[in-house]
Amino acid sequence: MTPDPLNRLVAQLAKLPGIGEKTAQRLAFHILRAPGEYAQELSQAIREVKEKVHLCARCFSLTDSELCGFCRDNRRDERTLCVVETFADLMALERTREFKGRYHVLHGVLSPLDGVGPEQLRIKELLTRLGDGHVEEIILATNPDVEGEATALYLTRLLKPMGIRVSRIAQGLPMGGDLEYADQATLAKALSARREL
Amino acid sequence: MERFVDEALVLSTVDYGESDRLVTLLTREHGKLTAFAAGARKSKRRFAGALEPYMRLRVQLVETRGSTVRLDSADIVAGYYGAREDLALIARALYAVELCRELTRDHEPHLELFELLEAYLGKLDAKEAGPTSLLAFELSALAQAGLMPRFDSCSLCGGPPGERPRFDQAHGGAVCEPCGFRARDAVAVPAELLSGLRALQEGQRTPLPAELRARARGVLNVFISHHLGRRLKSVDFMAQVGLD
Prior knowledge:
The structure holds 2 protein chains of 2 kinds.
Chain A: H1 4-13, H2 21-33, H3 36-52, E1 54-55, E2 62-63, H4 69-72, E3 77-84, H5 87-95, E4 101-105, H6 123-129, E5 137-140, H7 146-159, E6 165-168, H8 184-192
Chain B: E1 3-16, E2 20-27, E3 31-37, E4 56-63, E5 69-78, H1 87-103, H2 111-125, H3 131-144, E6 166-168, E7 173-175, E8 187-188, H4 191-201, H5 210-228, H6 233-240
Parallel strand pairs in B: 3-5
Antiparallel strand pairs in B: 1-2, 1-4, 2-3, 4-5, 6-7, 6-8
Helix pairs in contact in B: 1-2, 1-3, 1-6, 2-3, 3-5, 4-5
């Protein structure tokens, strides 16, 4: 008996990740009760994100212009390049405020069991990008799982002969962590990757 | 619903819903099982680092009404981390687990295959398994699954394969020249390829030369695709990254 437009909105909202039927209903009622401008701004924001956001022509992160903010920023160190799997990983690294170099987003990892090979990733574009000779070090920041390791090893095989320094992000215990509660895999990795003081 | 403990090798994982994961396990006593790991992607503690391909685990499982089981806990028995330090070792390990996944059926115990895979992963971890070892593993796994290709005699007449043998996946192996007209899809193969593969089947571990390995890979790919009804994905990956 509920009006069709409301049903349609609930159905669309329920398709979002993490949103069930009840939450979708709550959100729909919130939009219904909110001032008219809010609904207009929301719909415009959704439309614009689809129309205007695309991949950066250089690093393949997200942007609404030809080059993203990271690539346009002249203060960033172009001698260091951090390779990540996804844009979400880039944002996580950026939140640390530790890295001042540039990025390259692969948009996935090598996944033999899923049939994802080098051709499906932005690896060719990475190699083309290195042609200008500005990059001196590449930090491989893929996830510490089998696929992430495979991708890092594959990239190392391609990059080392080019005379570029290749490094891998460290793996082990989290800051402020507790050995007693660390999982086996992380603790084993922390032991094997120990460093001399 | 019965709860049981078993040893398992992780064959593959697939994300399910928002935070869960479906894990395909080859268990020592219960064969291949698909286990539902609730919250596996969200919880950093419960299954952390354990639900990855070719991990050897001690798992606590609970039977459910359907064909899947519920994974309650997983302790790492062996992580085979040494086999993660080289791309070729990763590729071989993933090929081995994919082959085992495709050769087995759910809930059918396969102790020999479990032990074979466990031993092979141990060799990869110790970096004692070169490219020929993968061919040897495949032949042993096929034999365990009842799909052993025949290299010592003609699959049609039982006679010797001769100097100009062929290989026919549909008839299960070597075909001699006189029988060749009865096996239309058969392809000519060098006699030394058949003898090399036969030696591997018999347990010899002499490394095959690269050219012969490439021919063997082609023959086994065709044989496995024919019997499984599809090509293994990790084979294409190995070809793309130039590994065997």
